[in-house]
What we know:
The complex is a heterodimer of chains A (170) and B (411).
Chain A: H1 3-16, E1 19-23, E2 26-31, H2 36-47, E3 51-59, E4 68-76, E5 81-89, E6 95-97, H3 106-117, E7 120-122, H4 158-164
Parallel strand pairs in A: 2-5, 6-7
Antiparallel strand pairs in A: 1-2, 3-4, 4-5
Chain B: H1 3-8, H2 20-24, E1 28-32, E2 44-50, E3 53-60, H3 68-73, H4 81-84, H5 92-107, H6 113-141, H7 145-166, E4 175-176, E5 179-180, H8 188-210, H9 214-220, H10 228-233, H11 239-242, H12 250-253, H13 274-297, H14 323-334, E6 343-350, E7 353-360, E8 369-373, H15 375-381, H16 383-386, H17 392-402, H18 406-410
Antiparallel strand pairs in B: 1-2, 2-3, 4-5, 6-7, 7-8
Helix pairs in contact in B: 5-6, 6-7, 6-13, 6-17, 7-8, 8-13, 13-17
Amino acid sequence: MDSRLEKVAHVLQEQAGATWEESRGEVHLFVNRKQIVDVLTFLRDQHEFSLLSAMTAVDYWPQESPRFHLIYQLTSLTQNLSIQLRVALDDGEPRVPSATTVFANANWREREAMDMFGIQFDGHPDPRRILMPTDWVGHPLRKDYPLGYEEPQFTFNFEEIDLRKPYAKE
Amino acid sequence: MTNFQLEEIPVGPYRHLVSERALTGETMLLNMGPQHPSTHGVLRLLLELDGETIINCVPEVGYLHTGIEKNMEAKSYIKAEVMCDRLDYMNPLGNNLAYAMAVEKLVELDVPPRAQALRVILVELQRIASHLVWLGTFGLDLAAMSMFLYCFRERERILDIFELVSGQRMMTTFIRPGGLWRDVPAEFESAVRHILQIMPARVDEYEALLTKNPLLLDRTVHIGILSKETALSYGVTGPMLRASGVEWDLRKKRPYMGYEQYEFNIPTRPEGDTFARYIVRIAEMRESLKIIEQALDKLPIGPVRSANRKFVPPPRSELGTSMESLIHHFKLWTDGFSAPAASVYSAVESPRGELAVYLEGNGGPKPHRVFWRTPSFDNLSVISVITKGHLVADLIAILASVDIVLGDIDR
């Protein structure tokens, strides 16, 4: 692990109670959800992590606590370093403060996480779905969301399945 | 102004994104796309206009959403790869490389030197092909119709090479975890040499047509200026970031696939306007040619896929003679291999910027989560900032210079 990253990790461990682990040359820093905006601001302003490369979520269903991990991949162009922040969220009503004020591209990335995983971002300026249609029900990338929904119709059960289909009938 | 008029204007769900003047009908809301020739795919832009000046521009994406990430979770690591060609359809080999590198990092698989050099050659050819499509459509949007024809003439030559090596012109799935699908045929070198021979003069030809063209300069210089700070805050990467004066290229800063062996420059421009983005991409084509030439000159001899049969299927020719190969082939194409419960983030420099894959395994043969950090997604989101105060015609030029691919954005 890079000594500069180690320093950052130690500071955050003291100040924010963050824990960290190293895996395949990457540093993963686990942060409390309430402190995520402060930690992002700290890393951007004090340690030149000026680029939010990626932001996404992972669903660990059927595990309930934590069910989701939010992932923030930060890059420092000046130091050529990367760090990954992870926020664990429980099932129920997952909520996190929005990072839009720190990184402008968090706006769209958070909308995507909200659309795909149903995670709520408090203080988001534009909380609409981004990829799915606005009237869509459910959050497709959750593990309890089925991949396909259409049952194959055969001659013996054609009518039976046809009756269950949502389109209007005469 | 009466309340009646307020209700008449279809601001609807965009109320918080437009200015107060749109509510009173002082400014006009105009819908551009999703079916529009200059939005480069199914992109919808909601414009708030004062006369012809853009007050607000709200991009709406998702019309091409195909659920590729969800689909990849349901397939084994080897079979999921065919989906990734379809993401950024101007850069299928680059997507293959990003995915293959993520899988290799996850299962700790080595890649032979010949495969690495061939990957570099193919990906750089793909970068030129992608920039040619960009240049053609950029010219088309700025009423330089002939550019499109010239650029597609050269792109065809490059696609012919992909057809030669993989049998497919676009969706190649040629770069696989652990190496390549197969070695390149004997005619490959002469075909690439031919490209290397003709391309420099052709790039000069494009520049002769455009770079000093007063019509182009009028429409691009000082248009859509993207400052360094805005670019970083919006996560903009690739040629767009380099045209804003930031020297950041993953091929140079975090070399992969042996990029550190090749000599090339990172073209940058300080201006950050549409013209700077044009210049940077033209210069990148020349740099890619340099890389291809060097890689071709010292192309190592040897195998093109890893000998680790637990992850890489054996060559077809062995199946008739070796029982063990047959078992490996059968196991890999039915069950697939299992990857440990760990996560990797692996990034490459695509023609549009940082293309990264977040790949998480769960000990089984299928990925637990595949996330594509696609460069166009962040590059497009900045358009609402850089188009403010410009004319609608300038929006077309700016959008063309961003070089979006909707398959890349909507995934």
